Amino acid sequence: MWLLFAVATLVVGVVSALQVRGALEREREFRAAPACASAPVRASACVWEQDFTVRTADMHRNDRYETPEAELTLPSGEPWHVTFRNTDPVLSEMAPGEKVVGLVWRGRVVEVRDAEGRSQPTSVGPQEWPADRLGGALACLSFGLPALVGWVWSVLARGDRRRAAAATVVRWHGVALGGTAILALWAQAANDWPLWAIPAIWGPLALLGLASMTAFTLAALRGELTDEAPATPQAPEPQAT
To answer: Is the dihedral of CA 154, 159, 164, 166 positive or negative?
Structure first.
C-alpha cells in the first residue's frame, strides 16, 4: 500500500511541477489580454464580458466526487455548461433566473461575476491555477519521496527492529510534510496572497519536519523507540511428587 501511494503521488507531483511554468505563462497571457471590441464569433485571445441567466446551479455537496457546476443561458437561450473548482463565493449564492456576467476568453467562460461584484474563476480559468499546481507538486513530492524511501528501507530491514522503526518514522513524517504543503496552499488561497507565499510558508515548516524526522530516525536506530529488553525468564513450576 505504501509503495502504491508513494509511486502514485510522485508521478502526480512531477506532472504538477512540470505544469507550473505553463500555468504561469497562461495566467500572464490572460491578464494582458485586451478587451474585445465586439462579441467574438469564434475563440479569441481578447476578453469579452457576456451577460448570462442562471438556469441551474448544483453544488454537489453530498457527493465529493462530483464537480460543482452551473448551466447558464445566453439571451438567445443557448445554454453554456460551466464547472467550478469550489462553491464559493459566487456559485453557492446562485439561483435560477439570476443574472450574472461571464468573462469569455478563448471561447470559454473563465470567470463568473454576480450582481454584487463578487467573482469566481471556473475550472478552466487561468487564475489560481499556478498556485494549485505548485501546492500540489509540493504536497505530492514531499509525501511521495519519504514514503518511497521508508518503504524501501523497511523491505531491506526485515528482521532488524531498529531499522524497521526508523523506516516507519520516515514514512509518517512524509505524511506530515505533505500536510504542511496543503496548509501552505490553503493559507495562500484564503488570504489571496501571491504565489511566492506558498514556498515561503512551506519552507520553514518543511525544515522543522525534516529536523523532527532526523531526530526520531536517529532515536529509532539507537533503539530508543523499540522495546528490546529480553523477556524475564520464569522459574519452572515445581512438579508434584
So the answer is: negative
Residue range 217-239, pLDDT digits in tens: 999 998 887 765 444 445 455 55
Q: Is the dihedral of CA 32, 34, 40, 45 positive or negative?
A: negative
pLDDT in tens, 131-157: 989 999 999 999 999 999 999 999 888
Full-model pTM: 0.74
Tell whether the torsion through CA atoms of 99, 101, 107 and 111 is positive or negative.
negative
**96 Cβ partners below 8 Å, 6+ apart?**
54, 55, 56, 57
In angstroms, what CA-CA distances link 229 with 114, 157, 166, 178?
68, 20, 18, 35
Distance CA 90, CA 94 (A): 6
Please name the amino acid found at residue 34: P
Residue type, 78: E
